[in-house]
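Hey,
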Amino acid sequence: MEPTTTVAISRWSGGSWKLMEDVVVCEYVLTVYMNSRRLVKLHCLPEHLDELIAGYLRVGGFISTNSDLVRLEIDSQQGTAQVYTATNASARPALTSGLADGQDSSRLKVGRATFGLKPEQVLFLIKELQRCSTLFKLTGGVHSAGLGTAQELILYRQDIGRHNAVDKIIGSMLLRSIKPEDKALVLSGRISADIVLKAATAELPLLLSPSAPTHLAVDLARRLGITLVGFARNTRLSIYSEAWRVKPESPARGT
């Protein structure tokens, strides 16, 4: 299935109507079964589906390591996926923004990773994410997420939903055994508390975006020890938590 299609539209411009074609992103529906039981129906962009599923399971607490994922079979024609997990794999409900009050965040922790970035490196990763976002430039219908080091953006994924894009990054990390302690999660849009929870689940110490965080996202990032950077655009950025990873002269804890 292609990620885009064309549709006929009527456009009002300059005081007159014009019939034309527009490129829109395709929305794919994938029903996931875990150990022969229906788990979830995901509305997504039809690419990197194995990573999306692996990330969804990892963030939801159904698996914690690659070895917990025994088998994964995707039938793209039927829109179904069969997942078989190890018998010791847990079965917690998926994380949502409803957990942002901290009731269940106690089981999450981000290690005291000493990895940090200079402001110029943060802005470079944001620019790299935007450079890769060709489908957004074409359709305006997707969100982007990336995984960055101090030198480069090593992963880029996109989807119709922010959460799916992040799950694809986390799933790719799981399937490729990529270590999180010296990586940053880079986003194209708003940072909400559930996105912070996903980053914490993957033990990623930095979360970067050109957009704004919510107050719950800031509060949670501070409690979990994640460096949250928003409004990273052009030559400026704002640090909302754990500033020492970007601004070395800041206190070792807090802002």
